[in-house]
Design a protein that fits this description.
By secondary structure, the chain is α+β, with helices and mostly antiparallel strands. It is built from five helices and seven strands, in the order E-H-H-H-E-E-E-H-E-H-E-E.
Length: 172
């Protein structure tokens, strides 16, 4: 059950909190799927630099969920980068991560609903995301929300780990 949940636009000062959520999530969700050396390289300093750069670009939002005063989950929404999809009508979720101890409590769904509202506001008709093929927990979550595997496949950058693309139409 969600407590005093707020979802807000992340600010550059939130980069360390987002990095912490990202690293903690990766270490649990990707263990056994992503090579150990890739997980080990996903450290707090690296992710803080990464999110500091992302948050400096304000064209597209990173949403941050605070629960009882603690930052616990985030999601980034952008126009699709995928060839063959129109960035004027197809949105893309680059990242959605929840602290492992809070998975299944509604934070991810609340973030996606918030991102969907932003995509609709921008005139998007569909949303895509890429998920590691072996991440069955995340895939079940996306399917429960209404996403479907659209057949898109690629390897996660710098690895041979397969990813599959999921897509959902946005209701008006």
């Amino acid at each position: 059950m969600l407590g005093a949940l707020t979802i807000r636009l992340a600010a550059p000062a939130d980069a360390p909190a987002i990095a912490r959520i990202h690293v903690e999530s990766w270490k649990v969700a990707y263990r056994g799927i992503m090579p150990d050396d890739v997980i080990a390289r996903t450290d707090l300093a690296d992710r803080t630099r990464f999110w500091t750069e992302r948050l400096a670009t304000r064209d597209w939002p990173v949403f941050l969920t605070d629960d009882g005063g603690e930052s616990v989950a985030f999601c980034q929404a952008i126009a699709t980068p995928d060839p063959g999809d129109d960035p004027k009508t197809v949105g893309h979720v680059t990242s959605i991560h929840v602290l492992p101890r809070l998975r299944g409590k509604g934070h991810g769904r609340a973030l996606l609903d918030h991102a969907f509202a932003e995509f609709r506001r921008r005139g998007m008709r569909e949303v895509t995301l890429w998920v590691l093929e072996g991440n069955t927990e995340a895939r079940r979550f996306y399917e429960k929300v209404g996403f479907h595997n659209d057949g898109g496949r690629k390897a996660y950058p710098g690895t041979a780990v397969p990813e599959v693309r999921y897509r959902i139409p946005l209701a008006s």
